[in-house]
Amino acid sequence: MKQPLQPATADLRLVDVLAALADPTRVALVARLADLGSQNCTAINNDVEVHKTTMSHHYRVLREAGLTETTVRGRERWIDLRRADLDERFPGLIDAVLTSLEAPPPTGQSQSSGS
Amino acid sequence: MKQPLQPATADLRLVDVLAALADPTRVALVARLADLGSQNCTAINNDVEVHKTTMSHHYRVLREAGLTETTVRGRERWIDLRRADLDERFPGLIDAVLTSLEAPPPTGQSQSSGS
Fold it and tell me: What is the ipTM of this complex?
């Protein structure tokens, strides 16, 4: 079974990882994988309101940047977050991104004067 | 004195910040500002091997994403990292990026078997 190429942990580049994360669909997908673990791409495609072709592009960007691992099993493609590799190369980065995503948007107009 | 527009803290968006950081020149500039504090753009331009016009583009991207604050003083432009605003909205993100930048590149071929 031919498996998609993905960079070795030592070859991950910070700017590529940041660029891959700099998209609402992709960063939401990373959060989903962090939360739920390995996911079948067909299941993901059924859940998002994004065209399958566009999702394929996003999967590729994430994989080529080293954020995800794609595994082909028969006719199915599964993707998983390379959390351990990312934490090894960029300590705290994925945690900080996920925390920032989960934070409620600030109210802006009604900031308190407290610290 | 007209000052360049920059987004309020409450309006900072994670994907914009990540996109602004996803460039070797810009992320190096953020590290310089984190290290040295407020910098005169002319001094920065003299230190980097990047055309002044390209640097102007980078300053704008950083400012519009909310990473930096630009202040015009007479004929000089000074930029500073909006560290407190960024840490408030995206806790740990800038720290993680700076730590990842400072980390030596892994040797790749000679990984130990330890954890």
Answer: 0.88
Tell me if B29 sits within 8 A of B60, measured CB to CB: no
Q: Closest Cα of chain B to A10: distance in Å? A: 5
**Chain B residue with minimal CA distance to A24?**
B15
Q: Is the Cα dihedral A104, A110, B4, B80 positive or negative?
A: negative
Asked if the C-beta of A27 comes within 8 angstroms of chain B's C-beta atoms, the answer is: yes
pTM of structure: 0.88
Q: Nearest-CA distance from A24 to chain B in Å?
A: 7
- Chain A: residue whose CA lies nearest to B24: A15
Across B30-60, b (16+ Cβ under 10 Å) vs e yields: bbbbeeeeebebeebeeeeebeeeebeebbe
Contact A9 B106 (CB under 8 A): yes
3-state secondary structure chain A: CCCCCCCCHHHCCHHHHHHHHCCHHHHHHHHHHHHHCCEEHHHHHHHCCCCHHHHHHHHHHHHHHCCEEEEEECCEEEEEECHHHHHHHCCCHHHHHHHHHHCCCCCCCCCCCCC
**Interacting residues of B36 by C-beta distance below 8 A, sequence separation 6+:** none
d(CA B96, CA A42): 33
Query: What are A39-81's pLDDT values in tens digits?
Result: 999 999 999 999 999 999 999 999 999 999 999 999 999 999 9
